[in-house]
Structures are given as C-alpha cells and as structure tokens.
C-alpha cells in the first residue's frame, strides 16, 4: 500500500515540544522529526488518507521536496509540446505583474491607494469611475507585457483602444486583460483579481503607441486582432484574497498556483482542476431579479425551491467580484450568471477581457459557458469593449438552463 506524506512547519513553545515528540514516536509511520529551540518541522507519512484522518495527520498540507513552480510548470509543458516555446516569457511577465499588484492591493489601506483617482473625475471608456489602483495596476501589467518582447498588441479594459507595442519590443502575441476586476470592492477589502487572455496575432501591426494619432487603416489592422475565445492560447486570472492565487490554462486543463510569500514564487497547488458536474450553489445578483427575463426568473425559482432536476434546494452565494465568484464556482460547482436585463440588454461584462478568458478556464475544467443563446468562446468580438451576458458553471447546471431557453424559443416559433 502506498503512503502519503504531509509536512508542516510551525512554532512551538518549549513545553509543547516534548508532547509532540511523544505523540509522533507512538506513530510508527513517522519518518522524520527535527526542531530548533523555537521552530518545529514535522513530516508524517501514512498508508492512506483514511489513516491520515484517524491519526490527526490530515492537519498537514500535501507537499513535495521540490514543489512545481509556475515557471517550471510552463517549461515542462513546452518540453512536452503542449505550449509554444516563447509563451514562458509572457507568463513570467504576467506573474511578475500579478505579484506587484498583489503587494499594492495588500498595502493599499496604508499607502493611500484606496478611493477614486483624481477625485472621481477620471472616467474610463466603460463610463466607470476609476480607482487609484485601476490606473496603477493597468500600468504595471501593461509595462510588464510590453517589455517581454513578445507582444504585438495590448488591449486593456482601462484603455480606450488597443495599444500596439513599439517595433523594438514587438512580438507576435495579443494580450487582453482586466487589470483589477472588482476594484469597486477594494475599499472594503473584498477579493479582487486580474483577468488575462493571450492570442496569437493574426495580422502584423507596427504603429506607434499613440492612440490619438492612429489612422482608420491602422485601426482596421488592430480590429483584425479581435478573435473568438476559441483561439486563446492561454488564459487565467490572479485572485488577491486571503492568499494570492493564479489559475491558468495553456489549453491542456486548468491549474491553480498559490503564491508562497516566503520565497515569492507561485507554486502548483491545484493541478488539473475539475468543476463538479452539478453543484448546489447559484450566484446571481438577485437585486436585479425583476429586471430579468421570465425564463431566467423561472429557472432561479426552481433552484431555490428544489423543483429542478437535482431535486435539491440551491444556496445563494454572491460576492460581486467576478474573479471571486468564478473561483468559488470552479471549486464547488453550481452556476454563476451576469445575465442581460432591462438595464443592460447586451449584458454588462466585457467579452474580450472577462467573458472569454473565464469561459476558457471553465471549459478546460469540464464546465460550460454561454450567453444564453450560444457558446461564449464561439462569439467573434465586433469591438474591443463589446459586452455580453455570461452564464457559466457546472455542465449539468448550465445545460438545464439552456434547455429551458430552448424550450421557450421553440414555443415562440410555433
């Protein structure tokens, strides 16, 4: 029978060290014990998870002698021909930017980075007031990508138009990103995140980084870089919460990496993440219930009352931060939605920066994503800031909603 190992390191007062030594000496499966006067490190190996639970060893986290860092993970994917060779430079640039943004977010309250930029007078292309960290995070990520030497075009939710990279730094990739999703919750210390997607550039564009001087022909060149989510080479998000976590897909599964603050590296903690086939959580902003279409209202009512295919009553969980809500849905299953309503008939989330990368991750984890009529990843953007409704989550949950829409649609055509 194979054994499983757990390792942990923690502080003990001297009076407790003797107690722990006796406990682990009684467990014959203990392989290693060492301590200093103020710090104790224990690694227990047990025959199975059941033994771990009964012996109390389940308190320890799975570990490796040589953990897989994000960079090592990407390099191993390149060696196995699961990723293009030069993607490692892009991912390295993104993870550096995310580490910097994580530091800025964690210290925002003590460095006067909370609140609105320019006293609320700065409005982005979406018509939204920009936070101080919206501006700063955008610049951090934009610079990191620009100087990677791999970018041809950079499109940000905070920029009016896509920005082309100077010829001396240009490459063949297109990056799209929301530098700080959920920034409206920042002052309340609610989880925020960075969302990104990487495409291969279809048309070469070498023009100056001055949006106001771009000619119509050059804008057409940039428009040719707009691609459906199905063409993404990589997508991910970085969540800034109780820990900093990056969830990434290079097209071969969805994987989670947690930032180890002691060594400053993202370490693989959630390999091959799989969303449950069906969950028991729905995540919608029910304040908009009366603005929804009757089909969605009926579906949500059935979730709440248990009058659905699972026969179980669903719980409502809604944070209001896309990264946090999608992350929970990815882990626990269920359905997340930011649907169209009377106020936002075209939806509110941006297709390029939010819907497509999140849908890519969910599908790579075995889930589904739709706008209520078609698969998100099949939609070709018409503009860089196009909005779409978004419903994603467990396969069976999304399928159930789509079948309700299909039924009503067929009835209307009769």
UniProtKB/TrEMBL annotation:
The catalytic activity of this protein is classed by the Enzyme Commission as 3.1.3.11
Q: Where is the Fructose-1-6-bisphosphatase class I N-terminal domain?
A: 69-271
Ranges where the Fructose-1-6-bisphosphatase class 1 C-terminal domain occurs: 275-405
Q: What SUPFAM superfamilies does the entry give?
A: Carbohydrate phosphatase (SSF56655)
Q: In which pathway does it act?
A: Carbohydrate biosynthesis
The family database entries (Pfam families) matched by this protein are listed as:
FBPase (PF00316), FBPase_C (PF18913)
GO molecular function per UniProt: fructose 1,6-bisphosphate 1-phosphatase activity; metal ion binding
Cofactor(s) needed: Mg(2+)
Q: Which GO terms describe its cellular component?
A: cytosol
Q: Does the keyword Ribosomal protein apply?
A: no
> Reaction catalysed by this chain?
beta-D-fructose 1,6-bisphosphate + H2O = beta-D-fructose 6-phosphate + phosphate
Tell me which InterPro entries the record gives.
FBPase_C_dom, FBPase_class-1, FBPase_N, FBPtase, Fructose_bisphosphatase_AS
GO BP, one annotated term = sucrose biosynthetic process
The protein's assembly and partners: Homotetramer.
Q: Which PANTHER family match?
A: FRUCTOSE-1,6-BISPHOSPHATASE-RELATED, FRUCTOSE-BISPHOSPHATASE
Provide the family line.
Answer: Belongs to the FBPase class 1 family.
- Know the name of this protein? fructose-bisphosphatase
| Organism per entry | Galdieria sulphuraria (Red alga)
């Amino acid at each position: 029978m194979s054994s499983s190992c757990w390792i942990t390191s923690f502080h003990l007062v001297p009076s407790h060290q003797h107690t722990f030594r006796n406990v682990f000496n009684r467990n014959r499966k203990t392989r290693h014990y060492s301590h200093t006067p103020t710090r104790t490190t224990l690694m227990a190996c047990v025959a199975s998870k059941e033994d771990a639970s009964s012996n109390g060893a389940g308190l320890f986290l799975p570990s490796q002698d040589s953990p897989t860092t994000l960079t090592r993970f990407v390099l191993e994917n390149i060696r196995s021909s699961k990723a293009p060779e030069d993607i490692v430079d892009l991912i390295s640039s993104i993870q550096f930017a995310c580490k910097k943004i994580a530091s800025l977010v964690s210290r925002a309250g003590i460095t006067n980075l909370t609140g609105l930029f320019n006293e609320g007078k700065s409005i982005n292309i979406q018509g939204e007031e920009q936070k101080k960290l919206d501006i700063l995070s955008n610049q951090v990520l934009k610079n990191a990508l620009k100087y990677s030497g791999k970018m041809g075009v950079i499109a940000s939710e905070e920029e009016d138009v896509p920005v082309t990279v100077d010829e001396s730094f240009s490459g063949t990739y297109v990056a799209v990103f929301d530098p700080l999703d959920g920034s409206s919750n920042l002052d309340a210390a609610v989880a925020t995140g960075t969302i990104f997607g990487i495409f291969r550039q279809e048309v070469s564009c070498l023009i100056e980084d001055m949006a106001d001087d771009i000619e119509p022909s050059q804008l057409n060149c940039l428009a040719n870089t707009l691609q459906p989510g199905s063409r993404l080479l990589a997508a991910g998000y970085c969540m800034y919460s109780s820990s900093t976590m990056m969830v990434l897909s290079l097209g071969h599964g969805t994987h989670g990496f947690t930032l180890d603050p002691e060594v400053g590296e993202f370490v693989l903690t959630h390999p091959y993440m799989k969303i449950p086939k069906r969950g028991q959580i729905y995540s919608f902003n029910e304040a908009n219930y009366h603005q929804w279409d009757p089909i969605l209202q009926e579906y949500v009512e059935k979730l709440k009352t248990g009058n659905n295919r699972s026969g179980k009553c669903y719980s409502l969980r809604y944070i209001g931060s896309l990264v946090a809500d999608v992350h929970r849905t990815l882990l626990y299953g269920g359905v997340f939605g930011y649907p169209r309503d009377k106020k936002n008939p075209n939806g509110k989330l941006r297709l390029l920066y939010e819907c497509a990368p999140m849908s890519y991750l969910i599908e790579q984890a075995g889930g589904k994503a739709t706008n209520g009529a078609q698969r998100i990843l099949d939609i070709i953007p018409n503009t860089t800031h196009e909005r779409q409704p978004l419903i994603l989550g467990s396969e069976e949950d999304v399928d159930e909603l789509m079948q309700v829409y299909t039924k009503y649609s067929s009835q209307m055509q009769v």
